[in-house]
Design brief:
Family: Belongs to the pyridoxal phosphate-binding protein YggS/PROSC family.
Number of strands: 8
Function: Pyridoxal 5'-phosphate (PLP)-binding protein, which is involved in PLP homeostasis.
Radius of gyration: 17 Å
Strand content: 15-25%
Bound molecules: pyridoxal-5'-phosphate
CATH superfamily: Alanine racemase
Organism: Winogradskyella litoriviva
Strand order of the largest sheet: 7-6-5-4-3-2-1-8
Pfam families: Ala_racemase_N
CATH class: Alpha Beta
CATH topology: TIM Barrel
Largest sheet: 8 strands, parallel
Helix content: 40-55%
Oligomer: single chain
Distance between the termini: 22 Å
Shape: globular
Keywords: Pyridoxal phosphate
Number of domains: 1
Number of helices: 10
Length: 220
């Protein structure tokens, strides 16, 4: 199927409250333009340089989401235009985003990445650390960032019960934190293989790559 057909297929089944981030990492601008011409305006990338290059080449009414792990020393390169940073996993990183956002007179929306997977390889903070951060004075002093929700990545496994439990954990963590932080709105969870399950568990934002653009080839 074409990129346009894939997009239409996915969108036809999405509830209204769920936002689709088209994950375009490794894909050429021509593929992204196909999605753009089919109406897609939100793209997710996991490498800052690649996102910058695509941002420069493409129309300017696109929202660019950084969905990958962010190195602090690279925040300055995307601070001018990034719409949402999904993978914030430390106060230090948040402070740097705040500093760079301030340089550009912006407020940058961020999600706290919660570690929901058992695997050691997945980044993220504990629910407790997120709660502590959101209650801290240091956090309340950061005026150029806004935490608008949480992000999580489930374990890479065929065991859908486990994935479901991990999504539910993110959903519960969100509900608890929202009691003290009413501005939390976004639950970013679900990818090509598990987004339907994620939506059933409360996701409001799915990050879908291969089901739109086809399998990725990391060698070119
Ligand atoms: C690559 C990636 C996705 C998309 O994965 P697909 O399985 O291709 O849909 C989603 N989220 C993150 C953080 C990613 O790095």
């Amino acid at each position: 199927m074409s990129i346009k057909a894939n997009l239409e297929h996915i969108k036809s089944k999405l509830p209204k409250h769920v936002t689709l981030v088209a994950v375009s990492k490794t894909k050429p601008v021509s593929d992204l333009m196909e999605a753009y011409n089919a109406g897609q305006r939100i793209f997710g990338e996991n490498k800052i340089q690649e996102m910058i290059d695509k941002h420069e080449e493409m129309p300017k009414d696109i929202e660019w989401h950084m969905i990958g792990h962010v190195q602090r020393n690279k925040v300055k390169y995307m601070a001018k235009f990034v719409s949402l940073i999904h993978g914030v996993d430390s106060f230090k990183l948040l402070k740097e985003i705040n500093k760079q956002a301030k340089n550009h007179n912006r407020v940058i929306d961020c999600l706290l990445q919660i570690k929901i997977a058992e695997e050691d390889s997945k980044f993220g903070m504990s629910a407790n650390d997120a709660s502590t951060l959101l209650k801290s004075n240091e956090f309340s002093e950061l005026k150029n960032i806004k935490i608008v929700g949480l992000m999580g990545m489930a374990t890479f496994t065929d065991n859908s019960k486990q994935i479901e439990n991990e999504f539910k954990f993110l959903n519960n963590t969100f509900s608890e934190l929202k009691n003290t932080n009413a501005e939390l709105k976004v639950k970013s969870m679900g990818m090509s293989g598990d987004y339907q399950l994620a939506i059933a568990c409360g996701s409001t934002m799915i990050r879908v790559g291969s089901s739109i653009f086809g399998v990725r080839n990391y060698n070119n």
